[in-house]
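Hi R.,

Here's the chain you asked about this morning:
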Amino acid sequence: MINVQNLQNKIIPNDILGVFGITLSEDLVKNGYVITKNPNFNHLFMLNPKGDVLSVDNPYYILGYAPELLDVEFDSILIGGLGLGLMPYVCQDFAQVDVVEINEDVIDLAKQLGHLGENVNIIHDDILTFSIEKTYDIVVIDAFYEALSEETITLLEEKYMPFINEGGFLYIPINKGVIDDKVVIVK
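And here is the predicted structure, written out as tokens:
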């Protein structure tokens, strides 16, 4: 279970770089994608080849953007979108974690960080077209950087709800703060 104490013990650092306890001696680079330390903050940033920030290992991400995942018992989770791997990192000690990521460079860079264990299965695929074959307690769709249309949300609901275990839910936090603070939770 993810709870505030777990997050404080595992990811909110006081004297280490980023949430994973990783010290970078140099930037990690793969086909123009870069993981680098932000010089003004104690965070790791993933940049695309244009230099745009794709992901930040913000220790407060789950508290600020996905609090609905706190204090919920689950044994399996499917996550759409890897980023730097914060959510799989937090869940890997108590759940089977499958992550679907479309960008191979993002996968390679996250693997180079070395913080994800054997309980994390990274699948190179598109979350919109991924052929799901097993059920999960929670499905989190966190693969988009812009608000999702109602049509896309409906497509995701139709695709993933049949593969959610009883008592579980589909969680789409990406629209929080974008469309009337609408977080989509389907049970």
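One quick note: The helical segments are 4-10, 61-65, 86-91, 104-113, 150-160.

Cheers,
M.
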